[in-house]
Structure formats: C-alpha cells, structure tokens
Give the backbone structure.
Amino acid sequence: MTDETAPSAGEFLFDVDLAERIREVAGGSDVRCAVAFWSEDGIDRIFASTKAARRARIVCDISMGSTSAEALETLGAPTRKALCHQRGLHAKVYISDHGLVTGSANASIAALGPNSGSARLTEAGTFHGPGSPAWKKAAAWFETVHGAANQVDQPALDWARRAYRPPRWAASRPPAPGSLLDAVRLDPERFAGAGFVFTSSASSDDEIKAAKRSAKRLGGTIAKPEIDAWPRGGFFTGWSAEQVTSWPTLFFEFWQPVQVLTMFAKTVRIHDPDNGSILSRNAWRTAAKLYGADLPTRTTIAKADAALAARIRGDGDGQLFIDAHALAKRLIEVKAGDAASAGSTAQ
C-alpha cells in the first residue's frame, strides 16, 4: 500500500499531532513497534482495544526499569511469541501499512498525552508514508531486530516486575510532609514485605461471629478463648478467597469510614480464605522498626494522606494492594491523571 498524499521527504510532528499519527499508524495492518518503554495508559492511548494491541509485533526493553509488567501482561505476556524484548533497545519506531512514525515518544501518556490535550513531556518525531524509502528501510530494520529479540516469557516478565521503577517525573517533587503514600510512590523497595489495605466499612456483628466460628474450626495455635476476645478492629471480612490467600502478613491499613483517616499497621494472625476473613493484631512498632525511624507518625499520615487515600479506595468498601510496587503503580497513575488534567485545564 502506498499513500500518494504522504509527504515523500517526511513530515515533522510534535505535541498532539505526533500522538495522533502514532495512533493512526497503530490502527493499520501488520503493526510493528520497536518501542523501548511501555505503560498501560500508553497502550490505551495508542491502540483502539487490547485485542488490537495484541495483534502488533513488538520489541521493547525491560532491562532499564521503565516498562511495567502490567503493561506487558496487557500486551499478552508471557504467552505471546510476537511480544519480545531486547536489552538496551531505546528506539521509538511505529510501523504499519498506514506509514512510519519514528521519534522520541515512548508508549506512555506522559509522552503522548491524554485523548485531548498536550503531553507532559515534550516529544517530536517524523512521519513517512507507506512504501517510502524510509518506511522500507525501517520495515527491514524491524525484521532484523525482532528476529534477534527474545520472547517476553514468564522469566522475562518476572524480571520486568523486579526491574520496574517509577518514572523519573514521579520523583520530581519531594514527598509531602508526613505522607506515607508519597514515600511508597517514590521508594517502593523500602517497603518490601508490606501490604496496604484501604477500608471504609466495619465488619458487622454477624460477620464477626461467623469469622470467629470459622477461625476456631481451623484448629490453629490460637486458643478459642483468645479468638472470642479478639478486638473488633482486628477483623477483615467479606473478602475473596484469592485476596485472603495473598494478604501480606504485615500491612498498613488506611481506615476511612468518613473523610477522617485513621492509620494502623497490623500483622495477620489467621488467614481464613474459606470464610473470606482475616484476623489481625496491631503492629505499628514492628512496622516502625522495619521501615525506619523516619517513618511518618500515624497522626501526620492521617492528615497528609486523607484525600489521596479516599481516591485510591474509590467507590468500593475496600482495596487491597499486596505489595508496595502495586500501590506505587496506582499512585503514579493518579499523579499522571492529575498532571494531564492540569495540562488540559491550562489549554
């Protein structure tokens, strides 16, 4: 296919025009992307659907910590043979029968911007029509790169998850004074081993009774009288078996039945997936010892993180993040959305 209207010498692109050309190319047939870094929001910006994204042949980089495992899973990892990685790939090349775009833009909202409005980063590139000399040379180059790359299989996906670091812009501002959420966003590795739970509803009397009965039937090391006397705040009920099974032993609870936030650190004493319940004990001192003397106090966290905690929890009664990386990812998404909204408002 040759587009007679396409500029023979290339078209210089920037801002919204660059993003729209990339989306146009990605809407064609035989889509090929040799693009270093991918985020889930970038996939949504480039492709019309996940199905369309999984039809593309892709080479990316996972060694530099800027491609998220979640994005790779959306693209079909670890089973798609056409999804590959090459250590040190830093190209940004998008090809299809609709043309070629090459430039500086990775597959992210930070580079491409929201559906309306400018991107946070200043990117530029060029477009060449299908069948043009540049298009032909890029297509041949892609085949060489893709052919030498490795599939993003399960070990590669695990590597990407370990290597991933929040984008540099996420750390462009210091953490808000007293904020635990900013500390997690900027340095999730520091909170290795901890989970995070955002709740707004207390367990009912009937739920607590059922949790106690079920806990006693488990036949663990905790005596029945101790279970009978278990404090109400130590119960988490109504969760799925999968959530209870994956619930970390040590976790921070953001308890927010109204606008006021109350902070806890807790350790799980009983996992009961059959009943969908957790029995826990307070463990703030344990958390403080593990995560540093400079850990914000419960009072300062409650003041600094109330508004953001409510947004993370959303409309549901509870949200569980099994580790700090999962929470950091969500926090980065929220920050990116805020930045994009601010940019759109300023237009």
